[in-house]
Predict the structure.
Amino acid sequence: MVSKKSRSEVRVNKHRKLRNRFSGTAERPRLAVFRSNNHMYAQIIDDTVGKTLVSASTVQKDVKAELEKTNNVDAAAYLGTVIAKKAIAAGINNVVFDRGGFIYQGKIKALADAAREAGLEF
């Protein structure tokens, strides 16, 4: 009998493999994305010192007030613009995109495209 790994196990393993290939530096920090069933989280991290420089999520009151639902593509796109504006205000223009082991489609792609349109380069 063939036993399959759960989707979350597969995602975590993919994320580990991705993290071996790149890391955030002071010049080019890492834009890490995580999505749960109800919310999305994005943070910009400098891995050399292990510090989060900028963060945004659909849990925050100011972001949640603008959204009808917190777990759809529109919410992801709005979160992308919010994180990009915060990053540019903090003086960050270039980032490395870390999709967190998630497939690059739907919500993850919407967040990335919105962040690019708002001025982040990756």
The first strand starts at residue 30 and ends at 35. Residues 25 and 46 are 5 Å apart (CA to CA). The beta strands are 30-35, 40-46, 51-57, 96-98.
